[in-house]
Specification:
The chain has helices at about 15-35, 50-65, 80-90, 100-115, 125, 180-190, 210-215, 250-255, 260-265, 280-285, 300-315, 315-330, 340-350, 355-360, 375-380, 385-400, 405-420, 425-435, 445-450, 450-470; strands at about 5, 35-40, 75, 95-100, 140-145, 150-155, 160-165, 170-175, 195-200, 225-230, 230, 295-300. The chain is mostly helical.
Length: about 475
């Protein structure tokens, strides 16, 4: 037996973070069982489904590294198969044609409300024997819900769940326009795809007692169900855009690594002892859907940023360089020098929580001019008595024949000794001249990576600006 899960998004919008979590759990549990996970695009709502949304779902899954086993299934292409199943149920006497008009249905519901009864279809067309005068009306096909007993299943997350069949009216399988409904299409596709485990949000719990009787009526095996608790924001409300329920690709644009997002998502409702950091291989080995908790998981952006910082620090530098190039381009560095990118990554790998932050902090390496300078920093650090030392340092650096760390150190040491200064006093004016701000990696590292020509040019321009700002001369 092949264990199979499926991720079945509707292509009416982007792949949001909740959907990504469902896809991840489907992937992980399939791998844990040594099985497969499949992708089904539930595009039967043709008015709302768009090619752009399909592309966004594919792009989001691909970025996360969640690659389904086999080609995606498009539900709309299975319409004939769905209708065949409905007509099979008709032939078996387990479904019937309902000719009730909208007015008749509304009248029926009004009477039920007056009697303080739950509004539901009363099955009148299942009992109808005289079809004269209505046979040419539009009709729907309804399923004969078992009138007695309960529909019960052992949910892998929620435990035992039971619905009285009297609470369920006769489900419409085929609409009056001849199109199959959601619940019929899902059951047929899950059967045909060989799905053994259905993992989805708890908002689908109400669909399950509709779907199980359909499986049983058609003589098919019923899959196991696992309904995941929904994601909530820190305020306890259902996750929305203001909490972070945006497109997964927004997280890519905001500088998150996919391994960090996956690591964070797996911890929303599941745990393995006190472990916080997981590789994909560890998740695939350890994850069991039965260990997911029943309580709503709280989405915390700060925790995601912390995890992202960890994954940046533990990533290969050549991999980060590729990602950094993309983010430099997004902030206007059209063709960053790849050698320079590779040299810059180690300077910021321990300092950045996101790749956007890394790109913004590294920007000064790739621009011709770091102005405008931070004027508050100039006022605080660029004192008149330090300007001669800065001029001295420029002379020392200009005479170096080798641009290596030991030679740079010696040039700084000679300057500090000549002017009786400590490195902290000289470092900030140098840093502002080189980067435009008072915050950067170590001065020697910055000078070394910038190179002699660019470092001297910036130091000379900075000195001239500081003199003008302080003394009013150029």
């Amino acid at each position: 037996m092949t264990f199979r899960t499926r991720f079945a998004p509707s292509p009416t919008g982007f792949l949001h973070i909740g959907g990504a979590r469902t896809a991840l759990f489907c992937h992980l549990y399939a791998r844990h069982l040594g099985g497969e996970w499949l992708l089904r695009i539930e595009d039967t709502d043709q008015e709302r489904s768009t090619p752009e949304a399909v592309a966004a779902i594919f792009a989001g899954l691909n970025w996360l590294g969640l690659h389904p086993d086999g080609e995606p299934v498009f539900q709309s292409k299975n319409q004939a198969r769905h209708l065949a199943a409905a007509h099979q149920l008709l032939a078996m006497g387990k479904a019937y044609r309902c000719y009730c008009t909208r007015e008749e249905l509304e009248s029926m519901r009004s009477e039920q409300r007056e009697k303080k009864e739950k509004p539901r279809y009363d099955g009148r067309c299942a009992r109808r024997v005289d079809f004269s005068g209505i046979a040419d009306r539009p009709y729907v096909i309804r399923f004969k819900t078992p009138p007695e007993g309960k529909t019960t299943w052992e949910d892998l997350i929620q435990g035992s769940i039971s619905f009285a069949n009297t609470e369920l009216d006769d489900l419409i399988l085929v609409r009056s326009d001849g199109l199959p409904t959601y619940n019929l299409a899902v059951v047929v596709d899950d059967h045909d795809m060989g799905i053994t485990h259905v993992i989805r949000g708890e908002d689908h719990i109400s669909n399950t007692p509709r779907q199980i009787p359909l499986f049983q009526a058609l003589g098919w095996s019923v899959p196991l169900y696992a309904h995941m608790p929904l994601l909530h924001g820190a305020d306890g409300a259902k996750l929305s855009k203001r909490h972070g329920a945006v497109s997964v690709l927004n997280y890519r644009e905001n500088g998150f690594l996919p391994e960090a997002v996956n690591n964070y998502l797996v911890r929303l409702g599941w745990s393995h002892g006190e472990q916080e950091i997981f590789t994909m291989a560890e998740m695939e080995s350890l994850f069991d859907i039965r260990d997911v908790g029943r309580s709503a998981a709280i989405f915390n952006q700060s925790k995601l940023e912390w995890l992202n910082g960890h994954h940046i620090r533990s990533s290969r530098q050549d991999r980060l360089a590729v990602v950094l190039v993309d983010h430099l381009r997004l902030i206007g560095i059209e063709n960053p020098d790849l050698t320079l990118v590779a040299a810059v990554v180690p300077l910021f790998q321990e300092r950045a929580k996101t790749m956007v932050e890394m790109a913004e902090k590294a920007r000064f390496f790739f621009v011709e001019d770091v102005r405008p300078y931070d004027m508050k920093a100039i006022e605080k650090y660029c004192k008149p008595d330090l300007l001669p030392a800065l001029a001295h340092l420029i002379t020392e650096l200009a005479t170096l024949t080798e641009w290596q760390d030991s030679f740079l150190q010696a040039a700084f040491d000679r300057t500090l000794q000549a002017h009786d200064l400590k490195m902290g006093q000289l470092a900030q004016p140098v840093r502002i001249a080189l980067t435009g701000t008072p915050v950067s990696p170590g001065i020697h590292e910055v000078v070394l990576v910038l190179g002699q020509q660019k470092s001297l040019h910036r130091l000379q321009a900075g000195l001239a600006f500081f003199q003008e700002s302080i003394h009013g001369v150029s």
